[in-house]
Amino acid sequence: MNGQGGSPDSVTPLDRDTLIAHARAVAAHAHAPYSGFNVGAALLLADGSVVTGANVENASYGLSLCAETVAVAKVLSEPWRGGVLALAVSGGPADAPGSTVQVTPCGRCRQVLMELAGLDGSDPLVWCDGPDEVLELRLSALLPHAFGPGALV
Ligand code: THU
């Protein structure tokens, strides 16, 4: 990945297309029998590696995990590979593979992603896959005035 060793500003269109492809692919592995809505997330780390996650639902509905949260948990429970430069999210109905609905990270995921990004002070690009176009935002635009560790004085 071209983002290797760089900052969010060094991320390229190639990185975007690759991350979207990872997010689409991992969505197929979602465990979403209750919503029937598969989501995949792919995080590009500063060392050039990609960490993915898919949503994991539970019969006790409220325990379900979003794709982004699963990916963040994987990053933070493995040896540190550098901050997150960019991420992609892709989702759609499980019974219509390849049919993408534009998914922006839910509010809880925005907060969880912000915690990870804050570890190296980055403001990652967020690509939200969609049927017509990929929406590109900065995480800070998705969660302005975020609560963070700085408040815990
Ligand atoms: N979902 C995600 O995985 N990420 C989001 O940002 C939005 C929603 C999942 C949660 C649930 O398993 C399914 O999509 C339907 O809400």
Automatic annotation (TrEMBL):
Of the GO CC terms on this record, one is: cytosol
Q: What does the UniProt keyword field contain?
A: Hydrolase, Metal-binding, Zinc
Q: Care to name a GO molecular-function term for this sequence?
A: cytidine deaminase activity
Q: List residues of the CMP/dCMP-type deaminase domain.
A: 14-150
Q: Name one Pfam family in it.
A: dCMP_cyt_deam_1
One biological process GO term for this chain?
A: nucleobase-containing small molecule metabolic process
Q: Please state which protein family the record places this protein in.
A: Belongs to the cytidine and deoxycytidylate deaminase family.
Name the chain's protein. Answer: Cytidine deaminase
The top of its lineage is: Bacteria, Pseudomonadati, Pseudomonadota, Alphaproteobacteria, Sphingomonadales
